[in-house]
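seq:
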Amino acid sequence: MLSTLLATAALAAAPAAAPATPDLGPNLERFAYPHPVRRFAATPQGEPVTMAYMDIAPTAPANGRTVLLLHGKNFCAATWGATADALAAKGYRVIVPDQVGFCKSSKPMGFQYSFAALSNLTDALLAKRSLGKVDVVGHSMGGMLAVRLALLHPDRVDQLILVNPLGLADRIAQGVPPATLTQLLAEENRSSATSIKAYQQANYYHGTWRPEYDKWVAMSAGMSAGPGRATVANAQARTSDMIQTQPIAYELDRLRVPTTLMIGMRDTTAFGRARAPASIRASIPAIPALADATVQRIPGARLVKFDALGHSPQVEDPATFQAALLAALAR
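struct:
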């Protein structure tokens, strides 16, 4: 009897099991975006692909300008929802794509991922929408893509705004052994909602967490919760390889468009640091430590620091981020 009571008490005291991650589909078929999703079809490498994107019209008198929002590796176009609405309310047209390999877009198994390939697809999408120059905002991995787009298609970009971009340092040159595709695939296959949340809490939100962040964890984990897991893992591993082998650090001085660097200073993201030898791991800098040197390398660039925010200021404090973004766009 006593043992039964003790077992019952222990069970009652134990934390509730985490709910099962819903299968949202490998292309987020069962995850709603804040605006209608369109499809852009292309054949960049001999195999048809589709890019999902939102094309959001101004909700105030149009100012004649268009903003392109580029997501990061662990993010999707939907993560830009609040930012897109704020821009539309100021008269901007807003284009928000999911890059090939991510979210609602195609994930071809043998695709050769490069920032050049993604830049060319993005440029083709903008041409299809009959757009000329656009203001480009790139977050995290999207910052790397924004830089490549500006370098490959300078006539497309009016100005750049880079939000906590990756690629500001060459991790391999710093001594981080390059991971093989097999290693990267194994890392992706170990991923779960629990590990995604732990990583984001530690690196993106400086140890804090809010209930509204759970939606984005469910979005990321939900792509891999069903039979499409292998497809998603393959795309994620290949895009990780793209990030580790194609840093933008060496080409920042080639930029010739007005550029603003926006940095959440409490960000601890340092892509690849976990694979660094223990002897150098502590010396692998996070993004904020690179900010001052980076802005000096970009001709005419400005630096905006968010002292209280982390890797995703647009998610953590939308009002503060949106005010700074609108000010930067008005330069």
